[in-house]
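Lesson 9: reading folded outputs for more than one chain in a single document. The general rule is that every protein is listed as its sequence immediately followed by its structure tokens, and records are never interleaved. Here is the first one.
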Amino acid sequence: MYYELLAILFLTGIGIVAGRILIPFLRKLKFGQTVREEGPESHKAKTGTPTMGGILFFIMFLIGGIIFGSGFIFGANGKEIWFMIFFSLVFGLIGFADDYLIILKKNNQGLNVKSKLLLIIFAALSGTWFYLNVLGYSTVIGINKFGFFIDLGTFYYFFAVLLIAGTTNAVNLTDGIDGLSTSISVVATLFYYIYAHSTNHYSVVVFCIFLFSSSFAFLYYNWNPAKVFMGDTGSLFLGGALAAMAMITKTEILLPLVGGVFVLETLSVIGQVFSYKMFKKRIFKMSPIHHHFELSGWREKKIVLIFSGTGFIFLILSLMLI
């Protein structure tokens, strides 16, 4: 545990230094945020803030992989560590393409919905194939606490696509105010860190170290008022990282509970759209739900702290099931 803490502090320091180089570089390239017209009026002031800060996650994970990726220091499986790194990077690159097109077009329309979804599905299927056929994981899912297990066989591919696409999009929807999606991801990562330690799954422990340190370094610059936004580059990366850990620890069924706040954010959007289309009435002042509280007078820091606290409740419930 002592060496893990040192590794987190060491990598966080590297991340903060890297951020000092990356953010001015993004500003020089004029990679500024384009705030959507239908968003809260207060967000208009954020226009021009550098985006694509999720590149910092790329840098941090590659540095972490080079230093600790063999797994030798922590007695981990190096192949699993690099699988999770590349799995996350692939989704981050899809987000990067989306962000880049937004910057080129100078509006909030990047990849069209169909193209983005097809890329996510292809990446999910490819990653799942590697997970099953190269790493040798099974198609069984279940919850140990209840002795419930089911072998999905070939249907695991369909299940995995739903899990991965749902997770990446849920994290993406939550990325609407400074520090929110990163903070909630840190709480969710804490579950995998605890679980991986309890099951001696040290490849996930190492991956959590990367995720903690990169998130802390990013929050250093993204805490309100943010100096940089992660963009889809970061949110899809984080979603991919959470899905990868769920698969490697065989806690796929628990992921919606572990990331319960992300699920609530997604449900708020679904509920809002359904209510308006069916009854021409809105449930919330604006969705996702963090914007509802923002328009209700809550400050961004308060929303982040309360939502993160809610994430801890989901963390405790998840731990009770293992």
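And here is the second record, again sequence then tokens.
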Amino acid sequence: MGTSPDLAAFPGQSVSSYDVTGRLGTDYYAVFADIPAEDRAVWERAQAYIDEVGPAMRAAWDAADYPMDIARRLGALDLLNDGIDHPDLTRFSPLAAGLVNMEVSRGDGSLGTVIAVQGGLALRTLALFGSPAQQETWLAPIARAEVPAAFALTEPDHGSDSVSLETTARRADDGGWVLRGAKKWIGNGAAGGVTFVWARVDDEGADDHAAVRCFLVEQSAPGYIGTVITGKGALRGIHQAHITLDDVPLPADAVLPGARTFRDASTVLYSTRSGVAWSALGHATACYEAALQYAQQRTQFGKPLARFQMVQERLAQMLEELTAMQLYCRHLADLEASGGLRPTQASLAKYHNTRAARRIAATARDLLGGNGILLENGVIQHMADIEAIHTYEGTESVQALLIGRDITGVSAFA
């Protein structure tokens, strides 16, 4: 049995592979040139992390495997804060939190979603609404990713209309609670940790009847069944779960005292929309830089693709959109740092950036030709993962309606 041949030595194949996944640091308008040293240090820590785990995550994405050791490494490196302001957590500026989201998503979208779920949704919910006892028990383990944490709002029948959630919480005779219902698309929902479950109180005559509350549920609780959703074509390196809550018994202190209405759930979602805008920027950066490097390395008709006018025009179009995405994100961080960020401004950033990321990914995929569908070149994986972030934390249509209501003063929600 012979050794594998050097494929590049055969006629018709002068190059066996292309090196297109390297980081180029694209910043045409110097949007990130004046980053404070403290924020840059956090960004560089995220870059080092992605360089460390990138190859393993590409294999995990291909195999639809969720490598918990790699996810826990995010916590060990203190990269899950997501800009949450709490005395027991390391404080990241909005810019530093955004740069972490961007850089990790540039390397792998599944890990970007780990940050969104573990940090942006679960940790933020606990930090904002949890009791002192709940925070003392769970805050540090979740921040360090020692305990996987999930945020369960979306239901099989209620995605964009999550305000209509049907999962119920009724008071038990012993003063505790009983949860019944179903949730879907819940990251970390079957990872063996804890889940923050949003449910509607079912207690006729009580002051909080029909109010939406949040409950801290250990996934080992009787009646909690989390089933990993298979067959996904995006975010294959993290598991989402379909959860059934079959009369799950909870103690009285399982409810988060600060979460009393659906508006509290919305507060968490609004906060994470900024992160999604940054994540889209990371995906788009990876696609643009892969296309640029490929155009410089790939030869057709006797010259590099980069020498063709049509290719240069496509690269210029991608750069135009990428630069606009960077400007959106940088100003978003500045607004948040000043305390002046409004929820609909975050919605506009997500609306613009996920749409722009889709266009950049599609152009990059086309520019790479057949090589664009190979996972080794990155673009097709980012293209698939962008589809997920375009939808979660509020679809394109929901963002448009939120923005439209704000600028017209008229609600068009059904």
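What the second record shows: The mean pLDDT is 95.
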